[in-house]
């Protein structure tokens, strides 16, 4: 039984997650709750916990601080981040600290509870190798030429796999897990088995038939584990409804990367915001190749996509450049790429509503991202217009028309918005925060903050944490 601890400063969220999700169906049990990181650490000292779901933004000790402490004290603890947080840096920090999954609270609708727990359960099984025992034959070496596996990308429900397909008594059929099953038959029966399994593809949603070679001298248990690993990593990217039969050798190495590098994630984010990928096929293909090359696990990919969408909408939703809709669930890279294509179309449509050329729109987007990514730098409209090779007056006019604020107004606005996050989610001094958002004078920063919010930074921090 996987013992679960839920950490969130909102009591209703804790109770809702604890009572509404079908924990028992996935061999899980909620053993405790905590309202902040400090109380969570106290609980971990007294009771064994296998899985911790934690919010990021909490008083006393934030989720990030809790993760750092828990990772040192309890290296075997599995952690899932549960948050509404919109800042890309916080999301990537959670992934760097070893979070096995990232769940946006907006995803936790009733019909997705089972799907979320299935994903977490599968991830824990893959990391700990705690795989259900197979029949007594599982340690016997395979003597068949090939092993066949039907694998469904749809994991929300159990599938009814066909029973014995050939008349031969040596036919083997074993369920791998709830979304996959494998077969084997003697050479004389292989063609019949293969064609019957192909006929089954249309009966199971999002299904792929794997034909595994080089299976001799391996145990059934090893083959089962290989199928589970391949399904979780490579098949996620290979699946295509137009090519449902895949022949693969078990000697092939898995190319999935478990540890995305910060510079690779940053490169994707920069490409999304700063290259005209929505309007040019070469840039689009480059962006897709960058995504695929990382081979991110599904949870990591969801976290990356969610952070990109939230940042885009935070920056552009209230402007003429438009809002994009998040992909709330997916079972394969094929679905993700379909969503990216639809997103590109919606961005193009929003761009077409303006009177400016695509070159000018892209330049304004690039200017926005330059400022966003380096708030400590004191950028000016004059300096950016020169960098973008546009006259200052025209740049200022375009910026205000597209972003709804003058450059100076926007610059102050985003610095104050970033400082709000620091105030609520860190214990750093006002001077430290002022420097991080581009103000070397703490008093001047406080005056600007008060002009835009009606409160001093210290008052905002106290009020925000008091409400929580």
Automatic annotation (TrEMBL):
PANTHER family: ARAC-FAMILY TRANSCRIPTIONAL REGULATOR (PTHR43280), HTH-TYPE TRANSCRIPTIONAL REGULATOR EXSA (PTHR43280:SF2)
Matches recorded under Pfam families: HTH_18 (PF12833), Response_reg (PF00072)
In-chain residues carrying the UniProt-annotated modification 4-aspartylphosphate: 55
Domain Response regulatory: 3-120
Species of origin: Paenibacillus amylolyticus
Gene Ontology MF, one: DNA binding
Cross-referenced SMART domains: HTH_ARAC (SM00342), REC (SM00448)
CDD domains: REC_YesN-like (cd17536)
Boundaries of every HTH araC/xylS-type domain copy: 365-463
Lineage of source species: Bacteria, Bacillati, Bacillota, Bacilli, Bacillales
Key words of the record: DNA-binding, Phosphoprotein, Transcription, Transcription regulation
Top-level lineage group: Bacteria
UniProt-recorded name of the protein: Response regulator
């Amino acid at each position: 039984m996987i013992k679960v601890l839920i950490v969130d400063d909102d009591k209703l969220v804790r109770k809702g997650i604890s009572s509404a999700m079908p924990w028992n169906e996935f061999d899980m049990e909620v053993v405790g709750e905590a309202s902040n990181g400090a109380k969570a650490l106290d609980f971990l000292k007294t009771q064994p916990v296998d899985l911790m779901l934690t919010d990021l933004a909490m008083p006393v000790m934030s989720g990030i601080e809790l993760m750092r402490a828990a990772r040192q004290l309890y290296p075997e603890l599995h952690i899932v981040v549960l948050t509404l947080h919109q800042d890309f840096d916080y999301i990537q920090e959670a992934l760097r600290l070893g979070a096995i999954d990232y769940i946006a609270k907006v995803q936790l609708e009733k019909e997705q509870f089972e799907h979320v727990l299935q994903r977490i359960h599968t991830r824990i099984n893959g990391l700990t190798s705690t795989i259900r025992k197979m029949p007594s034959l599982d340690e016997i070496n395979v003597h068949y030429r090939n092993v066949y596996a039907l694998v469904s990308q749809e994991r929300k429900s159990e599938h009814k796999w066909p029973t014995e397909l050939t008349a031969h008594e040596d036919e083997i059929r074993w369920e791998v897990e709830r979304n996959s099953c494998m077969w084997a038959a003697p050479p004389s029966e292989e063609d019949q088995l293969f064609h019957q399994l192909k006929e089954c593809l249309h009966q199971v949603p999002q299904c792929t038939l794997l034909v595994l070679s080089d299976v001799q001298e391996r145990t059934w248990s090893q083959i089962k584990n290989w199928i589970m690993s391949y399904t979780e990593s490579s098949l996620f990217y290979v699946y295509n409804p137009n090519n449902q039969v895949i022949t693969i050798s078990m000697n092939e190495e898995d190319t999935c990367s478990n540890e995305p590098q910060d510079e690779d994630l940053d490169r994707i984010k920069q490409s999304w915001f700063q290259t005209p990928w929505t309007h040019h096929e070469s840039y689009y293909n480059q962006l897709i190749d960058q995504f695929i090359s990382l081979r991110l696990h599904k949870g990591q990919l969801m976290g990356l996509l969610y952070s990109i969408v939230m940042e885009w909408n935070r920056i552009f939703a209230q402007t003429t450049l438009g809002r994009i809709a998040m992909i709330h669930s997916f079972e394969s890279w094929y679905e993700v790429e379909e969503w990216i294509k639809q997103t590109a179309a919606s961005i193009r449509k929003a761009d077409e509503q303006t009177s400016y050329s695509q070159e000018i729109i892209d330049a304004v987007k690039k200017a926005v991202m330059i400022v966003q990514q380096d708030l400590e730098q004191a950028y000016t409209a004059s300096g950016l217009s020169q960098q973008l090779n546009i006259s200052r007056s025209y740049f200022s006019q375009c910026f205000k028309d597209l972003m709804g604020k003058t450059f100076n107004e926007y610059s102050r606005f985003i610095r104050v918005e970033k400082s709000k996050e620091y105030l609520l989610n860190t214990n750093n001094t006002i001077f430290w925060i002022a420097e991080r958002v581009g103000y070397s004078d703490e008093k001047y920063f406080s005056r600007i903050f008060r002009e835009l919010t009606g409160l001093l930074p210290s008052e905002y921090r106290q009020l925000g944490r008091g409400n929580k």
